[in-house]
Amino acid sequence: MNEDYIHIVLADDDEDDRLFFTDAFEELKITTKVQTYNDGVYLMDYLNSEDAILPNVLFLDLNMPRKNGMECLKEIKANEKFADIAIAIYSTSASEEDIENTFIHGANIYIKKPDNFKKLKKALSEVVTINWQYHTSGLNKDNFLLRL
Amino acid sequence: MKLFVKFDFNAVCTKVLTEKLDALDVKYNLLGFGEVELLEKLSSEKYAAFTNALSEYNIEIVENQKSILVQKIKDTIIDMVFNEETIVNVKTSAYLADTLEHSYGYLSNLFSEVTYTSIENFIILQKIEYTKQLIIEGNLSLTEIAFQLNYSSVAHLSTQFKNTTGITPSAFQRIITKRREIQQNN
Predict the structure, then answer these.
(1) From B162's CA, which of A65, A84, B21, B59 has a CA 20 to 30 Å away?
(2) C-alpha angle with apex A30: A26 to A32, nearest 5 degrees?
(3) Angle at B156 between CA B100 and CA B116, to 5 degrees
(4) ∠ at Cα A94 (A89, A97), nearest 5°?
């Protein structure tokens, strides 16, 4: 029915996590296009490049070498050009402090990395569906907070 | 010699439409008032050919009716949620069916097909969005918000808020307040 696809980007230094992530999206019924980057520097280089197609949803791992997720988040939020991107933190940390801190700095979604593939698919599907609602139903994105 | 003819526009158009649809070799229902239900999916080539064939007669396909109807469902729900009268007194399924003149079952299936979510979930999402807005405005307590949005109790609203967003209403309020402080300092 919907011809458009949703453009997803993930920055994560763990190869297995990147693979699970890409596989999970392939199995969802929503059409997505997924690109992955190995750390924050590669990610920001891509986003700042002139011909970059900005993602609808950007997933950020928190612990990455060279430039971590929090640094990326702050850079992205400081740049008007990226205002339309929904930002999802995708991390193994479940510390309340980390979670609240990322939300305060402008993240829309916080996902604790699930321990199995089925849960991962469910979580990603939920993220994409709700994000789609914000996108298509004119909801106020400043109030978009989701924790899974 | 002069002849006078009398024609029935509706019959003429229906005849044209029927011929062109038959030529497409798809199953369809004519619903009247310019509404056609296709019972199978149309390839984009066939769709283009059909549009072309109709344009000869200046007949245009107005819009994808499904998207229009889904938009109407959304608008109706939003009106209903944001209106104090309806949210308290009206049963959603009956209200949608009456307003949009389709059965609730039809509307519900169509909605799920197009939006990847159900009408029920969409209503919850809208109510939670409204709650967020009222929390941020800060004029009402959560108990008053629960009452205004017709929740049976403040606990029910809190639970639904937590289930939908993963965070509690008070955490939401705290986060938004701190976020604004940071934005103001920048």
Answers:
(1) A84
(2) 60
(3) 45
(4) 85
* A and B: number of Cβ contacts within 8 A: 55
Q: How far is B3 from chain A (nearest CA, A)?
A: 50
Query: By the CB < 8 Å criterion, does B161 face chain A?
Result: no
Domain ranges across chain B: 9-62, 64-116, 118-186
Instruction: Kindly identify which residue of chain B lies nearest to residue A132, measuring between CA atoms.
Output: B115
ipTM of the complex: 0.82
Tell me, what amino acid is at B121? N
CA distance to partner chain A, nearest, from residue B46 (Å)? 16
Structural contact between residues A70 and A40, judged by C-beta atoms closer than 8 angstroms: no
Find the CATH number of the domain harbouring A97: 3.40.50.2300
Domain enclosing residue A53, as ranges: 6-147
Residues B74, A130: C-beta atoms closer than 8 Å? no
Record: contact A140-B117, CB cut-off 8 A: no
Q: Closest chain B residue to A127 measured between Cα atoms?
A: B165
State both tokens at A31. Answer: 């059409």
pTM score, whole prediction: 0.75
Domains in chain A, number: 1
Q: B179 vs A106: CB contact, 8 Å cut-off?
A: yes
At B71-110, the pLDDT tens digits run 889 988 888 888 777 666 678 888 899 988 999 999 999 9
Q: Is B68 on the interface with A (CB under 8 A)?
A: no
DSSP B84-127: HHHHHH--HHHHHHHHHTS-HHHHHHHHHHHHSS-HHHHHHHHH
B118-186: CATH number: 1.10.10.60
Distance from the A109 Cα atom to the nearest Cα atom in chain B, whole angstroms:
9
